[in-house]
Automatic annotation (TrEMBL):
CDD domains the UniProt entry points to: 1_2-HQD
Record-stated family: Belongs to the intradiol ring-cleavage dioxygenase family.
Membrane spanning stretches: none
Signal peptide: none
Molecular function terms, GO-annotated: catechol 1,2-dioxygenase activity; ferric iron binding
Keywords associated with the record: Dioxygenase, Iron, Metal-binding, Oxidoreductase
Cofactor names: Fe(3+)
Domain Catechol dioxygenase N-terminal: 41-113
Record protein name field: Hydroxyquinol 1,2-dioxygenase
Positions of the Intradiol ring-cleavage dioxygenases domain: 136-284
UniProt GO BP: catechol-containing compound metabolic process
Keyword Secreted on entry: no
């Protein structure tokens, strides 16, 4: 612990923070907000005010018991204790509470035809090899082979060359490579770059459904809630190119038993696809065996400018609906005091 003491302030003079005395169920909220409102950062002040309002209302509405508050604190401590460089239980918590998907939807709205986003999850890594089109990204001999043939286009149907595409999926046992203690190299993941026609293609595995990590506090919570911990079979994709809104998404196999009950709420109708089988011509064209699984998909990216405009428009409409006196500063709402 540092021996240095923070500077003393006074709450009794007019210059210091507001005097806090005799706080009650009814006046604790405005007083907490007042003392949190001394920063010049309008966005931080607004975020804290709304957080405190909702937290306090939650406690008042539920008449939160001390035992429940303690259990919640212990739950959060458990999330911290099980987290490490390669595991983040708090993101998992955000995922199973639907917050991750909500934040992605708010921040990356799509115009009609734009490929929708999905949850990132904790298994993307930065060490995937950049592979030329047509490569195999799997080293698992047990899985069912799949050829993926995809394009990246804009909302007018024009090809976007030079897009970096991160792709990752589990092996046939439903585990990502990083979940194997003996991982010595990346597997079932790669980075591709779209060609002049916006195409990229690779060989992977037919995805399988798998459980999210459930040996920690989040798994226990799901159990208490009588919820399962499964994700439907999917392949992750992340698209990046300067000037384009980064797209984090996934494609889900139609008919998966968890298609409509994903533990982390990532499935959207537009992301559910049917696999085909590779025919003779396609096999010849792509140098793969006839009869293996075929995933074909056209992804549609939106520009950063398009996305920002749409996000501002949706934010303005949402705030108007809420009847709040707010304005957008740097695309984010703050109270309008003018
Ligand atoms: C995933 O799809 O990799 C994932 C997403 C959220 C939580 C756990 C896993
Ligand atoms: Fe996944």
């Amino acid at each position: 612990m540092s021996g240095e003491q923070p500077e003393r302030t006074t709450s009794r003079t007019g210059s210091g923070p507001p005097a806090l005395l005799d706080l009650t169920i009814d006046n604790i909220t405005p007083n907490t907000i007042r003392i949190n409102s001394q920063s010049d950062n309008a966005r931080l002040t607004y975020l804290m005010a709304r957080l405190v309002t909702h937290l306090h209302d939650f406690a008042r509405e539920t008449r939160l018991s001390t035992a429940e508050w303690t259990a919640a604190i212990n739950f959060l401590i458990g999330c911290g204790q099980i987290s490490s460089d390669v595991r983040n239980e708090f993101i998992l918590l955000s995922d199973v509470l639907g917050l991750s998907l909500l934040v992605d939807n708010i921040n990356h709205p799509k115009p009609p035809g734009g490929t929708e986003g999905s949850v990132l999850g904790p298994f993307h890594t930065h060490d995937a090899p950049v592979l030329p089109n047509g490569s195999s990204m799997t080293s698992d001999p047990a899985g069912e082979p799949m050829l993926a043939v995809c394009t990246v286009k804009d909302t007018h149907g024009r090809a976007i060359p030079g897009v970096t595409v991160d792709i990752w999926e589990t092996d046939s046992s439903g585990h990502y490579d990083v979940q194997h203690a003996d991982r010595d190299a990346p597997s079932e993941r790669c980075v591709m770059v779209s060609d002049e026609q916006g195409r990229f293609w690779f060989r992977g595995l037919k995805p399988v459904s798998y459980p999210i990590p459930h040996d920690g506090p989040v798994g226990k919570l799901l159990q208490l809630l009588n919820r399962h911990c499964w994700r439907p079979a999917h392949v992750h994709f992340m698209f990046g190119k300067d000037g384009w809104d980064r797209l984090i998404t996934a494609l889900y196999l139609r008919g998966d038993p968890y298609e409509t009950s994903d533990a982390v709420f990532g499935v959207k109708k537009s992301l559910v696809i049917d696999l085909d089988k590779v025919d003779k011509e396609t096999a010849k064209e792509y140098g793969v065996e006839e009869g293996i699984w075929l995933l074909k998909h056209d992804f549609v990216l939106t520009t950063q400018e398009e996305t920002e405009k749409l996000r501002d428009q949706l934010a303005t409409e949402a705030l108007q609906k809420l009847g709040l006196n707010l304005k957008l500063v740097d695309h984010l709402p703050v109270p309008d005091l003018d």
